């Protein structure tokens, strides 16, 4: 047994022993740890001492599993369309330009109807400066049409694929597979090859798991001692942070990750890491209404809870 790259590697003489060990470990550790069945190199020490490397065998010789996944590009671009609608609505309200309706159009575009051509022309001039990634033009007597530029669509597609590649690589690392392959194929497909893996069902379960994100309000009325012992009100529950510290959250879910259209990482004014998220129009309204209805909780932090199933 040894510690390799942050994971514990245990070797066994037979597959039967390996399977029994996995069942025993899973019963003790639960869902907090991944217990994966793999083949590990058995390079003798004298070969390792002269820096000899084992021959890399492909799936045809070594066995393993091959996955081909397709990114749901329609959903990704649809969320971006929702974000554009919300952004243009907000800009028009701030500028004081009245409009009557906003509709979705083909190719992830949108159209806005105004009372007259004057308001439409004023909106085109104003919005074109604020949104250089949108192609905004007049449509009919009192409408404008906005579509994402080819460069913006290409950037959005690239981001969606790369985001999924990063997620899959992180999940592959949980399996502890030596020499995995995670690479792009074509415009919107991703190939995952896991040489030598024995538990293919477990690999499929981890790679295909659905992660959900919930935003909840932290209950600051419960002290740390009560939180550690689990003595919390009925409307709250105790969760563990990544560092293992207890935190008391209200059970009510404010918002889910379904309303997130984009996310980026950056640093705040104190050079600490932070995550910036953009919400669709429905998500923005939910957060706005929650803030208005819960003024007495101003200053209470909101916690993000990730669930994977």
TrEMBL record:
Gene3D superfamilies from the UniProt entry: 3.30.1360.200, 3.30.70.3400
Gene Ontology biological-process annotations: protein transport
Keywords: Cell inner membrane, Cell membrane, Membrane, Protein transport, Translocation, Transmembrane, Transmembrane helix, Transport
Keyword Protein transport: yes
Domain SecDF P1 head subdomain, residue spans: 240-295
The keyword tRNA processing is assigned to this record: no
An example Gene Ontology CC term for this record: plasma membrane
Domain Protein translocase subunit SecDF P1 positions: 161-219
A Pfam family hit: Sec_GG
Annotated stretches, region: Disordered: 290-309
The protein's name in its UniProt record: Protein-export protein
Encoding gene per record: secD_3
């Amino acid at each position: 047994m040894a510690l390799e790259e942050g994971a514990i590697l245990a070797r066994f003489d037979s597959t039967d022993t390996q399977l029994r060990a996995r069942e025993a470990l899973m019963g003790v550790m639960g869902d907090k740890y991944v217990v994966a069945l793999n083949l590990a190199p058995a390079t003798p020490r004298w070969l390792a001492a002269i820096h000899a490397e084992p021959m890399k065998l492909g799936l045809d010789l070594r066995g393993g599993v091959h996955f081909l996944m397709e990114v749901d590009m329609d959903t990704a671009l649809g969320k971006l369309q929702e974000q554009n609608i919300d952004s243009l609505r907000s800009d028009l309200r701030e500028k004081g330009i009245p409009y009557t309706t906003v509709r979705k159009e083909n190719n992830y575009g949108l159209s806005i109807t105004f009372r007259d051509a004057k308001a439409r022309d004023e909106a085109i001039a104003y919005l074109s400066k604020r949104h250089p990634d949108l192609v905004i033009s007049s449509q009919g007597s009192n409408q404008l049409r906005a579509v994402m530029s080819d460069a913006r669509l290409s950037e959005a597609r690239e981001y969606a694929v790369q985001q999924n590649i990063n997620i899959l690589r992180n999940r592959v690392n949980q399996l502890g597979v030596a020499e995995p392959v995670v690479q792009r194929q074509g415009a919107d497909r991703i190939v995952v090859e896991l040489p030598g893996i024995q538990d293919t069902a477990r690999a499929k379960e981890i790679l295909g798991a659905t992660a959900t994100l919930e935003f909840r309000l932290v209950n600051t009325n419960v002290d740390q001692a009560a939180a550690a012992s689990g003595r919390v009100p009925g409307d709250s529950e105790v969760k563990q942070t990544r560092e293992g510290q207890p935190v008391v959250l209200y059970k009510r879910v404010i918002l889910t990750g379904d309303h997130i259209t984009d996310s980026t990482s950056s640093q705040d004014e104190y050079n600490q890491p932070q995550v910036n998220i953009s919400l669709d129009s429905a998500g923005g309204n939910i957060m706005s209404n929650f803030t208005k209805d819960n003024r007495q909780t101003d200053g209470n932090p909101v916690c993000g809870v990730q669930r994977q199933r």
